[in-house]
Amino acid sequence: MKSATLPSLRVDPELREAAESVLEEGETLSGFIETSVRETILRRRTRTEFIARGLASRDDAKRTGIYYDADSVHTLLKEKLVTARKTLRKKVRS
Prior knowledge:
Elements: H1 13-21, H2 29-64, H3 70-93
C-alpha cells in the first residue's frame, strides 16, 4: 500500500518546543504527531459509538417503558468490577 502524507502544519514556536520537550527516547516529532492523530481518531470514534449506544438505549427505554435507576446500575457495575478484579487476581497468582 502506498503511503500518504498529512498536510504541513504551521504552529507557534512554543507549541513545537512543548511537543519536542515530551518526546520519548528515540521518538521523532513526526512519530509523535502520527501517534497523536491516531489516538485522536480512536478517541473520536469511541465517543461517537458511545453516544450512539446511549441514544439507542434511550430509544429502547422509550419503546419498552423499561427504565433503570442510576443506583441499581451503579450497584450492578460495582459487582461486576469486584468479580473482574477477583478473576484477575487469580490469573496473576497462577
